[in-house]
Backbone:
């Protein structure tokens, strides 16, 4: 078996180029995979009643709303295909994926070198498909009237490993002497990995005395329940809870006058730094031998722009989806 690596850059906005690093394990298509691909192109001709099978996705809680929305729409047209979408965090999804135990891994970060090596060792060949853009959003309770903007340095001081900050005024003397109660993703989360690397300078460099969860709704409820709370999670979960949460503007440098709020425009243009990020699907090539997986992925790419927006993430530009579509096609043909 030959394993190939390649990179896949795509344009996320006119003002910024977001380069997505990717490495996949490439194998030559079997006759069964070619047959699945051919059947996928003629699925409507065969009739929905003949469309039977199952697809399983697991991984990121951030990507979950997108994949779940696609699955629901897909099953309306193809009710005999069972699409199961689970949440175990990006890391949890990759634990299953690298063992060959999963069709699709939802991921809010690129695959790591260690995970890629495990895939190669286990002969799990894959393709990487960017499907949307997110901006990790730092939030506080709606009753928090004192904190509007934080610099990356302040966030690092609060969240890094060994941080001794316990109250808001220890973060900024102008803030009240009120306890800071922190909520964040658990260590299997791709959001945890991305945030700690972008804010704290190193993957995993996070304090541990916070309330972790793999379920973003649990984090939302935690911040909603305490006036002194702070948390971070995917942009969509903030948009759905704007009435009880406030987003914190982020200054990439030390100048608070340069603070940027997370919005569709700032996330797409990458002005919301350093927390704008791409979202991915990782697909087990072996699963492409099953027609229902091919059909589901083609449906995902075609309906992606609409459904990504519907669940409050930011769609890729048209050129991004064209590259994702081409990448899926190439992945099926390799």
Residues:
């Amino acid at each position: 078996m030959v394993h190939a690596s390649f990179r896949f850059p795509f344009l996320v906005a006119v003002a910024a180029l977001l380069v997505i690093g990717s490495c996949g394990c490439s194998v030559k298509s079997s006759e069964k995979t070619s047959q699945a691909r051919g059947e996928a192109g003629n699925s409507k001709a065969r009739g929905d009643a003949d469309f039977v099978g199952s697809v399983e996705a697991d991984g990121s809680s951030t990507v979950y709303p997108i994949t779940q929305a696609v699955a629901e729409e897909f099953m309306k047209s193809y009710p005999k295909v069972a699409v199961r979408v689970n949440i175990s965090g990006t890391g949890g999804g990759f634990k299953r994926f690298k063992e060959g135990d999963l069709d699709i891994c939802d991921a809010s970060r690129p695959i790591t070198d260690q995970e890629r090596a495990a895939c190669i060792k286990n002969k799990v060949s894959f393709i990487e498909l960017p499907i949307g853009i997110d901006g990790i959003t730092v939030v506080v309770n709606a009753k928090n009237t004192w904190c509007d903007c934080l610099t990356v340095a302040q966030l690092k001081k609060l969240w890094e490993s060994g941080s001794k900050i316990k109250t808001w005024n220890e973060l900024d003397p102008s803030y009240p002497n009120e306890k800071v109660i922190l909520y964040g993703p658990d260590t299997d989360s791709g959001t945890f990995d991305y945030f700690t690397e972008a804010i704290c300078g190193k993957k995993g460099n996070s304090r541990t005395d916070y309330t972790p969860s793999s379920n973003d709704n649990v984090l939302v409820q935690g911040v909603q329940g305490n006036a002194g709370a702070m948390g971070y999670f995917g942009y969509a979960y903030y948009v759905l809870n704007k009435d009880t949460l406030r987003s914190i503007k982020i200054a990439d440098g030390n100048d608070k006058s340069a603070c940027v709020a997370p919005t569709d425009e700032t996330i797409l243009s990458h002005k919301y730094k350093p927390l704008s990020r791409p979202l991915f699907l990782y697909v087990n090539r072996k699963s492409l031998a099953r027609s229902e997986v091919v059909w589901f992925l083609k449906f995902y790419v075609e309906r992606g722009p609409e459904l990504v927006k519907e669940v409050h993430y930011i769609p890729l530009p048209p050129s991004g989806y064209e590259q994702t579509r081409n990448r899926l096609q190439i992945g099926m043909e390799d």
Notes: Residues 291-310 form the longest helix (20 residues).
